[in-house]
Batch of 4 targets.
Target 1
Amino acid sequence: MRIISGQWRGRKIAEPQGRDVTRPTTDRVREAMASMVDSSLPQGIEGARVLDAFAGSGALGIEMLSRGAAFAAFFDINRSAAALVRKNLESLSAPRSSYRVFCADCLASAARGRIEGAPFDLVMVDAPYALGADPATQLAESLVKSGLLASDALVLVEHAAADEGPRPDGFIVEREKRYGSTAVDLLRFDGSLTIEDIDR
């Protein structure tokens, strides 16, 4: 797997062994996701604070760092995957101040309101397809209630094209794209809403 663009363009990063561990996002979809974000964030990717919630190899968050994101928090509950993310970042000599890797449940951490690097401008959710839209919905709403999102934050969700995408309270669907069996939905947080609005 190679980084598509930015300061580490063309550099290789390691993939997990065995698709039962994680399902790498294809180059085509990663490029499309980055383009969607870059054109939708007011300042583009440059300087953004990123949360890669189900990191796998870390490819999505690393792509954003390569393109100028200021910070990325990587979460994976699988110990081997979290170790691989660290290995990939170290292989690129990424500044230690630009990232943190957590072997932990991102949903639980968001619910507790404890994620270093917040408030986030961009949240990327590539949960196992078998879980459907629930993880993305739960994570987005927990981040809002915990005050961990910027006022115009984006949530980028990859899911199976056959499934309906997440529609968390307090978010507006900006774009929906399909790439074969994969779908990508871009949601924008409506920062004018209060927690009470979202709880209704």
Target 2
Amino acid sequence: MSDSSAGLPVLLAALRKLWWVVVIGGVLGAAGSLGYSSLQTPLYTATSSLHFSITQGSSATDLNQGASYTQSQMLSYAQLVEGSLVLQPVIDELDLGTTPSELSRSISVSIPRDTSTMKITATATDPQRAADLAAASSEHLIEVLDEEGSKTADGSPSVTVAIYDEAVPPRYQSSPDKTRDAFLGGVIGGMVGIATALLIALLDTRVRNEEILVEAGGDPVLGVVSKAPLLQARTLAVALEPLSRTAEDFHRIRSALTYANVSSRVRVLLVTAGMPGEGKSTISVNLAMTLAGLRHSVLLIDADLRRPRVHFHAGIDGSVGLTNVLLEQVSLDVATHSVSGTTLDVLPSGEIPPNPAEILTSHRMEELIAAVSSKYDYVIIDTPPTLSVADANLLAPIADGVLLVVDATKTRRAALAESMKTLEMGGARILGTVLNRARPVRRRDSYYAES
């Protein structure tokens, strides 16, 4: 019950997102059916209607019995229409190069229930030919009944047949019905489009939105960061546009961290992701700037000693930094860069060492974190992805909490589960997750300048 209720919103969301698949399916289905119908040979139908009655008897009883008798014989009369006794004279009259058996496929007979009437319908590729076939079939049926049917005492036919609705050439083709075929093709194409959209949704295991992240991760979602050009440009987005929607997203994350601090103070925050390219450095830099915006003293450490990115976002020189401090080549004050006009300091990665894991797990690293955590209100450590290398797991014990970044455009549910399991096995305290690059929520009114 819970699985179906949880999956229904996902499927509905898939239809809203992939509506164009349904539309394209309907359009292609309608166009394909219309094209196929246009290639078919047009067929025309003409109908001749006949009425059968008994000629003998004048009393009401006789007439009633005669009507019952006529109705009981209607099926026999219908078989005559489709037999050679009627169709061979039709072939001879119209000079048709065919046989009664083949011609019978173009003739259909219908008898309305509880009536003494018959409808003879002929189908042909020419309107006039269809009318001629229906008319000739009706006339020769009357001739056969007059000659071969039962007779009265005076030798006249006991059954009188009258044509009350003569066949006329139709104005429009009966088959193929292009309008109907296009409609049915559109319906079928639309259904295929719906099935395709739902299949894509079922096969797409990416963590697309906050609801899926809650369901897949289990840990609290501390915030959602929407796609924004400034974030993609690797800049301090919250500093460049402090009134933007992006800035508001990071303010919400900062507020969520405040509630996470209720049980125990979080001064050292480790930021990581499952796989490369999920935006952990972007989140680290802008979260640090957001905390500094409240006049907190913040130190951002780039502990990704394999593919450092923090210095690009901060616009500083990253050649001297954490590695040099740990190797005691320079002091912390020399390696640290202060962001002008803020309370944010940045410690870049420095030179990339041949043994990153050994340096990060050294006693000197523990001493450094202990020293800076007593000096700054917040220390944010940007670390490599958990599923690529073990650096984040090795650093987790010296941090007060871990923030896991999830990319809405690429993170799979299985990778998210594996990342969280890896961190928990390493002794990490996972404070929650942040969904990055989420689809922006459209509002009728905008309170923020779009970034």
Target 3
Amino acid sequence: MSTESASGHGVTRVEFSLTSPEYPFVGVSVEDGGRMVLEENVVRGDGICSEFFRVEGVRPERIVELAEVRDGFDARTLAGRETGGLVEVIAADDCPLQFLAERGALPVDAHSVDGEGRVVADIPDSEDVGSIVREFLESHPDAVLVSKRSGSPARSILSGGATSEFGADAMTDRQREVLVAAQEAGYYDWPRETNGSELAEQLDVTPPTLHKHLRAAEGKIVADFVERCSRPFETDR
């Protein structure tokens, strides 16, 4: 499940602007006028994270095309319409949200619109706000600090594993068990650390049974995302 700040503790909310089209979610806004909002960012390990974006105003396949020509990125369409859908962007080298999370900040929003990307994070009072902001700006030359203000903590969009809140309640115990095992074994890493046959042997099931459970679990996650895709585009969480 997604991480939340402890209730009752104050935070400093920082908002950064990103303009480099090297980030696919920014690039589609710059080049095609599309809009994207990050629903959840799943940390896979070894610096790799999966970013699940809701897309409007552009073909989801366009994000895949942009990711293919950017170093350190890959993408796939999970649900698509002519002018919108759901896309998973895999960031292998530079994930701004993970960069912030590793330094104690809790990402709460990321979106792009009108040719500009925005990243928002809550920094608990126990952390050094100035140091985190400085490190982020130094590591992301195109970034600009837009605002910094005190506030109450919000739900983080950063998740620590494959069993995010999306679709989790609809899964059977066995589906959840297989999905977690696949995540931990590196089945979802890029490139994969294990294949379906190896994972099936580890779980003492046949490969067809393994893929049946994985497809069912993934289908429930995607169905939940697709439902969210029908909601109006929002950038203010």
Target 4
Amino acid sequence: MTLKVLEKKHNRKGFSCGVVELDNYIKQYVSQDVKRKLAVCCVLDDEDANLIAYYTLSSSSVDLNDIPDDLKNSLKYTEIPVVIIGRLAVHVDYQGNKLGQILLIDALKRIIEVSYLVGNHAVIVDPINESAEKFYAKFGFIQLKDSKRMFLPLKTVATLFEKE
């Protein structure tokens, strides 16, 4: 099972994860975002190139004032560079098999790799619902101040992979 960057050959029409917004995104909007370099989409597919799961990555920044006080002590800048896992979804037929966890780990590994080339301080996620919030919280993501967004310092991510 290998995650790869979305290609034209991938069949997105039959994708359904149970969340309309995530289904519509992969079917209608992801190509535009990829083409405009607004996001990179990584996918898991079957032997017929049907989508099983996907996630997206983008770069951004967060205001220093949004970061929890105990995590911003050594930071001097008003905007902190981050990578956003903007979407993460698993087809309903494959849910319950820890594929979400596999996607998240793959995304975090890619973010660590890119951090050697482009500075980024943390990973941000935008949980779409309470279930997604609980999922990310299990991996150590914490809520940003006055926001639904969740935050995981890259230093924490790096320690997760040091144990491998």
